[in-house]
Amino acid sequence: MKQRYVYALAALLAFIGLSVFAYKWSALGFPLTANQETPVWTIESALSFDPGPGSIKVNLHVPTLTPGFRTLNENHVSRGYGFSINYGSGGREAQWAIRRADGSQTIYYRISVFEDEAIEETDTTPPFPPPPVVNEPFRTAIEVIVADVREHSADDSSLTAELLRRMNDPSPDPNIELLMSDVENDADFVEIVTTILAVARIPARMVRGFELDGRQRHADLTPWLEIYDGVRWRYFNPTTGEQSLPDRFFIWWRGNEPLVTVEGGSNLQIQFAVQENHLDAVAIAETQAAKQGAKLIDFSLYSLPIQTQAVYAVLLMIPIGALVMVVMRNIVGIDAFGTFMPVLIALAFRETKLLWGVFLFTILVALGLSIRFLLERLRLLLVPRLSAVLIVVVLLMLLISLMSHRLGLETGLSVALFPMVIIAMTIERMSVVWEERGAADAMRAGGGSLFVAMAAYIFMGMPWLEHLIFTFPELLLVVLALVLLAGRYTGYRLLELSRFKALSDS
């Protein structure tokens, strides 16, 4: 292909990428940098179950009201299911229904929220709790506890705080110890407390929610205690008795009822994930796109499941590492082993961190190279020799992990993240170069590979660049255009200028 065709193709790719980028930035309002001042959290629940032969009905408690948070939007993904929102004693409940379903089923519910201090608790008319039915000897124990705690408190709030203090005492009295005999988790503990408070004629209920803090691929609901003191609802930490909610605590639902139920199905599982975005990047951009009827927003990476987003946040940085590799080899002139080895090593550095990763890589290659020279005396064929080197690399990785664990260096366990096949190929190629061109050329190529991997890691680990590529993946077309142009470069490499300096001076 003629050079002008390559330039035309590169220009076309760059034009398309930059045009889509400019449209999303200027028209839809996607930001160029991450804005940490106005966070938006997207909480996603994934319900999985096996359907039965008949009709199916799934009920999930969904957020109703959380002080300090406002709902931006909510949606669900449930192919073929009817959907409705019902209101019950515990708040809102989402319901999915279908006549018949085949194969394993997965239903997604997603809600996006942002902080708003103007949102306050408005549920001020709780039902007065009826006396709970408690069998003996538990009822007598509860009555004794309530009478004793009431003597050491002034109001409902102080009574609750005193009760929680006694319930969490490492050496509780026999009555509390009796009630705690069936407690298996935090939810059971809060349920026991609400029962005691009901006997004391104090409206109380369990609330469960998340402490919103960045990105969580597997988030767990945390139980909390809520009581009504006659004026307003007050929240208590069931572990410490402190009267407050944690910072950025988002309440999912209230009550002791099951979070989710399924009729006509089995093996029900639910998993939560939390994603922190930014108000201007997600809320405003999506709202603007909806107003304009823009279909481009339907293909945004933010529409994918949160766990998938976390995967692509890493994968989308690999082309950046490839671009660094192309520039370093074709323009700078650094000698390196393989095409993708430095990029994959840089990807491993993201998990091991740079200095420790360099150390582990150096040790692994040095030991593998030594054993490779020993294998050379056996005069094996190519494929068996590569297989033997691969097995040796795996054993070395295992040995390093075990030794570092015994020495208390848990960071050494991250050696398992290195791509073992690439390491084995690097050792093989380095040994061949050592035999054919000498140790100096082999060490130069090995050092060059490590240098390129370090440079790729620096660029692939830039938070602003990761945000830019994830928000504007069309910029990868620009990266492709740059790679095509670099592929047609036939001039002097930067490191070769010193070699030909004498010719230019003559």
Q: Mind telling me the C-alpha Rg?
A: 31 Å
- Basic shape: elongated
Kindly identify the CATH topology of the largest domain.
Answer: Immunoglobulin-like
Task: Report the sheet with the most strands, covering strand number, pairing sense and barrel closure.
Answer: 5 strands, antiparallel
Instruction: Spell the H/E element sequence.
Output: HEEEEEEHHHHEEEEEEEHHHHHHHHHHH
Uncertain ranges = none
Overall CATH architecture of the largest domain: Sandwich
CATH top level of the largest domain is Mainly Beta
Tell me what portion of residues adopts beta-strand conformation: 15-25%
- Per DSSP E runs of 2 or more residues, the count of β-strands stands at 13
Output the strand order for the largest sheet.
3-6-1-13-8
- What's the rounded overall pLDDT mean? 79
Q: Roughly how much helix do the residues carry, as a percent range?
A: 40-55%
Please identify the structural class as seen in this structure. alpha+beta
- Span between N and C termini? 36 Å
Integer count of domains: 3
Number of H- or I-type helical stretches: 16
Q: Could you walk me through the main structural features you see in this protein, from its secondary elements to its overall organization?
A:
By secondary structure, the chain is of the alpha+beta class. It has 3 domains: 39-127 and 208-222 and 249-303, Immunoglobulin-like (Sandwich), CATH 2.60.40.2250; 138-207 and 223-248, no CATH class; 318-460, no CATH class. It is built from 16 helices and 13 strands. The strands form 3 sheets. A 5-stranded antiparallel beta sheet has the order 3-6-1-13-8. A 4-stranded antiparallel beta sheet has the order 4-5-2-12, with no helix packed on it. A hairpin with a 4-residue loop joins β9 and β10 (233-236). α10 (354-376) packs across α11 (382-406). The longest helix is centred in the N-terminal third of the chain and has 25 residues, at 3-27. It is elongated and about 90 Å long. The model has no long low-confidence stretch (mean pLDDT 79).
